[in-house]
Amino acid sequence: MQTPMRPNETVLDKIYVIRNQKVLLDRDLAQLYGIETKRLKEAVKRNLSRFPEDFMFVLTDEEFQDWR
Protein backbone atom coordinates (compact mmCIF):
# COMPACT_ATOMS: atom_id res chain seq x y z
CA MET A 1 0.00 0.00 0.00
CA GLN A 2 1.32 3.40 -0.98
CA THR A 3 1.74 6.07 1.69
CA PRO A 4 -0.50 9.06 0.97
CA MET A 5 1.37 12.20 -0.06
CA ARG A 6 1.37 15.04 2.43
CA PRO A 7 1.48 18.59 1.09
CA ASN A 8 4.69 20.35 1.98
CA GLU A 9 4.78 23.66 3.78
CA THR A 10 5.00 25.60 0.51
CA VAL A 11 1.60 24.30 -0.57
CA LEU A 12 0.01 24.50 2.87
CA ASP A 13 0.92 28.18 3.16
CA LYS A 14 -0.97 28.88 -0.07
CA ILE A 15 -4.28 27.26 0.87
CA TYR A 16 -7.02 29.71 1.84
CA VAL A 17 -10.60 29.12 2.99
CA ILE A 18 -13.03 31.08 0.84
CA ARG A 19 -16.78 30.36 0.76
CA ASN A 20 -16.09 27.52 3.20
CA GLN A 21 -13.87 25.80 0.62
CA LYS A 22 -10.13 25.23 0.69
CA VAL A 23 -8.70 26.94 -2.38
CA LEU A 24 -5.45 27.80 -4.13
CA LEU A 25 -5.33 31.12 -5.94
CA ASP A 26 -4.49 31.06 -9.63
CA ARG A 27 -1.26 32.97 -9.09
CA ASP A 28 -0.09 30.49 -6.44
CA LEU A 29 -1.01 27.48 -8.57
CA ALA A 30 0.83 28.96 -11.54
CA GLN A 31 3.88 29.57 -9.36
CA LEU A 32 3.83 25.95 -8.15
CA TYR A 33 3.85 24.83 -11.80
CA GLY A 34 6.53 27.36 -12.70
CA ILE A 35 4.43 29.21 -15.28
CA GLU A 36 2.86 32.65 -15.61
CA THR A 37 -0.67 33.11 -14.28
CA LYS A 38 -1.67 34.26 -17.75
CA ARG A 39 -0.55 30.92 -19.23
CA LEU A 40 -2.44 28.94 -16.58
CA LYS A 41 -5.64 30.84 -17.37
CA GLU A 42 -5.13 30.29 -21.11
CA ALA A 43 -4.71 26.55 -20.57
CA VAL A 44 -7.85 26.39 -18.44
CA LYS A 45 -9.89 28.27 -21.05
CA ARG A 46 -8.67 25.88 -23.77
CA ASN A 47 -9.65 22.86 -21.66
CA LEU A 48 -12.81 23.92 -19.78
CA SER A 49 -14.49 20.58 -20.46
CA ARG A 50 -11.84 18.82 -18.36
CA PHE A 51 -12.76 20.68 -15.18
CA PRO A 52 -15.83 20.04 -13.01
CA GLU A 53 -18.23 22.97 -12.76
CA ASP A 54 -17.36 23.56 -9.09
CA PHE A 55 -13.59 23.31 -9.64
CA MET A 56 -13.03 27.06 -9.79
CA PHE A 57 -14.71 30.36 -9.18
CA VAL A 58 -13.95 34.06 -9.46
CA LEU A 59 -13.67 36.14 -6.30
CA THR A 60 -16.09 39.01 -5.95
CA ASP A 61 -14.56 42.46 -5.40
CA GLU A 62 -15.55 42.25 -1.73
CA GLU A 63 -13.99 38.78 -1.29
CA PHE A 64 -10.82 40.00 -2.96
CA GLN A 65 -10.59 43.00 -0.62
CA ASP A 66 -11.28 40.82 2.44
CA TRP A 67 -8.66 38.31 1.34
CA ARG A 68 -6.01 41.00 0.88
> What class would the helix/strand composition place it in?
alpha+beta
- Strand proportion: 5-15%
Q: Taking Cα atoms only, what radius of gyration do you get, to the nearest Å? A: 14 Å
Total DSSP E strands: 2
Number of domains: 1
Helix content: 40-55%
Query: Averaging pLDDT over every residue, what do you get?
Result: 85
N→C terminal distance: 41 Å
Q: What order do the strands of the largest sheet run in, or round the barrel if closed?
A: 1-2
- Count of DSSP helices? 4
Description:
It is a single chain. The chain has 68 residues and is an alpha+beta fold. It is built from four helices and two strands. It has helices at 9-12, 26-33, 37-46, 61-67, and strands at 15-18, 21-24. It has a two-stranded antiparallel sheet with strand order 1-2. Strand 1 and strand 2 (21-24) form a beta hairpin. It is globular. The mean pLDDT is 85.
Quick summary:
The protein is α+β, with helices and mostly antiparallel strands and 68 residues long.
Set out the fold topology.
Blueprint: H1 9-12, E1 15-18, E2 21-24, H2 26-33, H3 37-46, H4 61-67
Antiparallel strand pairs: 1-2
Short key terms for the protein model shown above:
alpha+beta; two-stranded antiparallel sheet
